[in-house]
Design a protein that fits this description.
The complex is a heterodimer. By secondary structure, chain A is mostly helical. Chain A has 13 helices and 3 strands. In chain A, strand 1, helix 3 and strand 2 form a beta-alpha-beta unit. The chains are: A mainly alpha, B alpha/beta.
């Protein structure tokens, strides 16, 4: 039986090897797609910082095009941390303010929209800009979603979870932190509370109701190791938290399997005909 | 007759579904190996087509007399080479095969016997399983050929050793996993297996794994040569393409077996559990 106190240890990676593998992933994807480089949105958080750092190590700073895409409510901390990341990696950080692309829609048509809907639209606006920039530059859009948030569905479908390639998608949040430290990313970026920065004072962990470090362990036991929820609880995890995590994981599965096609023909895309994308 | 043999493991990356591109690479690597005096050159599993073909499998299938194979025969000349192909038989069944080109012709074909169909592996959906295990028909009949998952079923290596194999070639497309160690976790498992195979069968094991990425999964590399007895003699790096060349002596097998007669001691008359 895996004991609770051993689990965090099991999530530790050999950072040097993991970084080498992820860099080779980015190089291979660029080569396979005949792309000129990567486009990425730097938010000031640790996920986008790590993705950008991996791309810079893989391709060189001149082939990585980072953008800062703030909304009027974005904090000055986000800007400061995104700039520190860009500076430490030697990449430029042009800014495109999305406020004037978000507000007119809600002002004119949906003034009563809640902050979740507004946040989703911001995420999709950023995606839309990044894909446009990628088209312009002949680049791929570099994803920044980690395994924890993908499994919890803590993302906007076709927003921040959309990308051409995602080097972080099989890294739990604490593994993201581990690799970020290994690559000497700015400590302000690593140490701060994770936030989608959708409204002032928002933190992911407040909104989710549990800490990432805990979610990582529960998800590892259920998803990677195949334990049933009661077996996870038996290892000392709080039942309510395990239940909440399981519920999020199940409810948001649709976000992980994009393009659900109704099968009629017997040769449906991705169901009957699995053609590799490489 | 000399028992020394210069072998080469062509740890390369294949482009998925692009036979002509891959064939060009094979021809280049054959030339590189020739310059290094290689007599037996081994490519990875499905080296000519890439591995994760899914519904592209049928589109890249070749018969044994396909023009691409003939070009490899011509390029090989006096060198022996083993390549991985999708093979189509007369009935249209597809196999995950390894082809030994030796003496100016296709000398032996091994059709993968165990097709992994679990986790990320889908081979049983697209390939038929081979049904025959034989030594290659080289002059001295000392060569046994296996493909990847075949090695995880140790009776196959054992049967080849009993039949007279002194070296086993294992073509692989082994996907990598990263954990806390400084070696890919998947490689640690493979090396346990190749070393134990060489140990209990007292034979050479030549393990050729590919590198590169397909569909978000990477192949580890780390191709290696294990001495009879289980010591790793040479190992290619992880992740990067590499031509690993080494000289092996088949006589080493005989010398070890004289003092460690494990293969000769095999009994088939033991009653009970099967």
């Amino acid at each position: 039986m895996i004991r609770k106190e051993e689990i965090r240890k099991r999530l530790e990676l050999n950072a040097e090897l993991a970084v080498a593998v992820l860099e080779s992933f980015i190089r291979d994807a660029a080569r396979t797609a005949d792309a000129q480089g990567m486009v990425v949105g730097l938010s000031g958080g640790v996920d986008s910082a790590l993705s950008t750092a991996l791309a810079v190590h893989a391709l060189g700073p001149e082939k990585v095009h980072a953008f800062f895409l703030p909304y009027s409510a974005s904090t000055s901390e986000s800007r400061r941390d995104a700039e520190a990341t860009a500076e430490s990696l030697g990449v430029d950080l042009p800014e495109i303010d999305i406020t004037s692309m978000i507000d007119p829609y809600f002002d004119k048509y949906e003034p009563d929209a809640d902050r979740l809907r507004r946040g989703n639209k911001m995420a999709r606006e950023r995606m839309s800009i990044l894909f446009d920039q990628a088209k312009k530059k002949g680049c791929l859009v570099l994803g920044t979603s980690n395994k924890t948030e993908i499994l919890l569905g803590y993302s906007t479908i076709f927003g921040d979870n959309a990308s051409s390639i995602n080097p972080l998608g099989d890294l739990y949040k604490q593994q993201v932190w581990q690799l970020a430290k290994h690559l000497d990313l700015p400590s302000a970026v690593i140490d701060k509370k994770p936030s989608a920065d959708l409204w002032p004072g928002q933190t992911d962990e407040d909104e989710l109701g549990f800490e990432y470090a805990l979610a990582d362990e529960v998800l590892y036991l259920m998803f990677d190791r195949g334990l049933a929820p009661d077996e996870v609880v038996a290892r000392g995890y709080e039942a309510a938290v395990v239940e909440k995590i399981q519920e999020l994981e199940q409810r948001n599965r649709f976000k992980r399997r994009l393009m659900l096609v109704a099968r009629l023909s017997g040769s449906a895309i991705n169901l009957d005909r699995e053609i590799p994308r490489d | 007759m000399t028992t020394q043999l210069t072998v080469g493991l062509a740890q390369l990356d294949s482009r998925l579904g692009q036979i002509e591109v891959n064939l060009g690479c094979h021809l280049e690597w054959i030339e590189r190996a020739r310059e290094k005096g290689v007599e037996l050159l081994i490519f990875p599993e499905l080296s000519l087509t890439g591995y994760r073909l899914l519904h592209l499998t049928g589109r890249v299938a070749l018969r044994r007399n396909a023009p691409q194979i003939e070009r490899l025969v011509q390029a090989a000349g006096r060198m022996s080479i083993i390549v991985g192909i999708v093979e189509e038989d007369d009935k249209g069944v597809l196999y995950n095969s390894s082809l030994l080109i030796h003496g100016g012709q296709v000398n032996h074909v091994h059709r993968k016997l165990y097709l992994p169909t679990y986790g990320i592996f889908q081979e049983g959906r697209f390939f038929g399983p081979g049904d025959t295990l034989e030594l290659a028909q080289t002059d001295n009949r000392h060569l046994g050929m296996l493909i990847c998952e075949d090695l995880w079923h140790p009776h196959l290596a054992r049967s080849l050793a009993i039949a007279g194999a002194k070296m086993l070639t294992v073509l692989s497309a082994g996907p990598g996993r990263v954990g806390s160690g400084n070696v890919p976790e998947s490689h640690r498992d493979w090396e346990s297996l190749t070393r134990s195979t060489a140990l209990v069968n007292t034979c050479w094991v030549l393990y050729c794994n590919r590198v590169g990425w397909e569909e978000g999964s990477f192949y580890t590399g780390g191709s290696h040569i294990v001495r009879p007895g289980g010591e790793v003699m040479a190992r290619a790096p992880y992740l990067d393409e590499h031509l690993l060349v080494a000289e092996i002596d088949l006589r080493e097998v005989d010398r070890l077996r004289w003092r460690l007669p494990l293969v000769r001691a095999v009994r088939t008359d033991i009653k009970g559990a099967r």
